Automatic annotation (TrEMBL):
<dbReference type="Pfam" id="PF13577">
    <property type="entry name" value="SnoaL_4"/>
</dbReference>
<feature type="domain" description="SnoaL-like">
    <location>
        <begin position="4"/>
        <end position="123"/>
    </location>
</feature>
<protein>
    <submittedName>
        <fullName>Nuclear transport factor 2 family protein</fullName>
    </submittedName>
</protein>
<dbReference type="InterPro" id="IPR037401">
    <property type="entry name" value="SnoaL-like"/>
</dbReference>
<dbReference type="InterPro" id="IPR032710">
    <property type="entry name" value="NTF2-like_dom_sf"/>
</dbReference>
Amino acid sequence: MALTLEERVAITELIAMHGHLCDSGELDRLEEVFTVDVTYDVTDFGQEPLRGVAACAAAGRALGDLNPVGHHVTNVVLTEQDGGRVRALSKGIGVNADGTTASVTYEDVVVRLDQGWRISHRRVRAHRAPLGG
């Protein structure tokens, strides 16, 4: 069954909400975006994957002033998968306090729970060279 327009909007807003919660320091609300047992894969940054929403919140707090002041997400592409899952690709732009920026790709698996859509797995891929180099 094809995703409805309403489902596409809900998933896109879900992906956008991550940045709003992080930028406002509302890390205790990350369960509104992620499943409780989310895997947040940051191995591309030389770190172990984070397991669980509490670990994601703790990692954000531990970064403190090294967190971006702005998380911006664009270019959301949704693809249905088996089992009611949705693959979501999006681009993230991080703006740091000193004005520098960085670009990533978010590779998400989104699932529907009783509470609505949530990200159950996120891989963050850093972009360090043009053309995927």
